[in-house]
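Summary for the steering committee. One of the milestones for this cycle was to obtain a three-dimensional model of the protein with adenosine monophosphate bound, which we needed before selecting residues for the alanine scan. The sequence and ligand used are listed below.
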Amino acid sequence: MTDAPLKLFNSLTRSLEVFEPVHAGEARVYTCGPTVYNYPHIGNMRAYVFADVLGRTLTWKGLKLTHVINITDVGHLTDDADAGEDKMEKMAAEKAQSIWDIAEHYKQAYWADVRALNIRQPAQWTVATDYVPQMIEFAKGIADKHCYELESGLYFDVASVADYGRLARANTEEGEGRIEAVEGKRNAADFAIWRKTPAGETRQMEWDSPWGKGAPGWHLECSVMSGEVLGFPFDIHTGGIDHREIHHPNEIAQNQAHCCTNGLDDPKNSGARIWMHNNFLVERSGKMSKSSGEFLRLQLLIDKGYHPLAYRLMCLQAHYRSELEFSWEGLGAALTRLKRMVMAVEQLKLRHAELGSASMADLVAEPAEGWTLKQVQGDDWGKLQGALDKFDAAMADDLNTAVALTALDDVLAAKKVDPDKKAVLAAAIGAVLGLNLFNLTRADLRIRPKAASITEEEIEAALDRRKEARAAKDFAASDAIRDELSEQGVEVMDGDPLGWEWKLA
Ligand code: AMP
Ligand code: ZN
């Protein structure tokens, strides 16, 4: 039985590296969380599906995982390069609500998406405004050697640390140009770690500091929360690929200043051993922009009748480092694939019930900390061994979920194998991918848009009447019921290979 070495792509070195924990047997991971000024779009949620798959894979590999995701409720400006307004202040003004209410509302909405996508709860959600005293202490510690004060705030001098911008490849042709937004900055890339409240103004969120009343900079928040909870250096820092350009280079510079270390030839000096970034979900018509009216929220997918895990599966079909294009056709195809898996699992449940042995739920129950390779390693899997090895190797190969999914297909399609063995392996693999296959039913996956005027009970009742009519050979009545349903947007699907009895158009 193989236990493939876990290789992950480190954005800092732009290479695949074998994962070697900082603390033996552990994995400490920090994920940049959402700014809770608006609903997350499904692209944002791709970042958390990715971080969740990473976490589940670390667990699979037997590491004790400590995962932290933050909630940004202050400091993130409308422009990452230090310009514009605080996103939270801006939304609060637009809605004439308090920032605290805005933050609470959108945090809850984000958490609802997290649950719907079967993203595991991290060990800790750190909320930025809970850490302001620690942020001030951190800033005080680096201010003398690395910062300077301007009228608008305390700025970090990026020339004061070695290798600034290496993560972004900022000094090479690969790098992005920088924008000088504030007059008086020493270097274009310098950024505010403390933003003073302008004289004569009062912000909804402001704190006293040695540099006057104000609020922390966004980059400072993540340096402080990650270091406080996980300790420098920790193992892995994740975020979307946009963070590779500004936010994470700035976090790294602060971490270097704080840890009194120098260059980045040793990645540990950046504060984390490995920096990982998911690529973007893109959509051609611009519906991903939060400023467009009906933007792509997970709830929109659900309202149109798609099960949220179909979106999760859609994400898993692409490698996290590849751009993924969203389309409704693609989502529909993912839903169909998920349904095939659930149907195969339903077959296994039936076979299990026929054998009359102990409950299926007990057999496939996920261990409290999640499935690990060790838990399945000792068993004789016979013909299923190849699929298990393929799965383990795929996940170890920088989270190749697309191939891992084919290993799950292989398990579910295997012929002449013990159905209970199949079930356990499908449950374990499905759980590492976060697909929750054993708790879904075909009916859960039925397309039923929220806007439909007919209820499911009404449809089922009509179909029952139709069955009776057909049994009585009253085909005129049966056709009439079918036509009535059709007028109400219900397509009756006799003999559908996927077992859909009906669908709402
Ligand atoms: P924000 O709330 O803007 O800080 O973003 C939350 C997370 O979503 C960050 O890790 C971003 O990098 C990530 N992100 C933003 N847009 C997309 C997208 N279209 N696809 C994937 N990830 C994204
Ligand atoms: Zn961050």
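Key point for the committee: Residues 168 and 245 are 5 Å apart (CA to CA).
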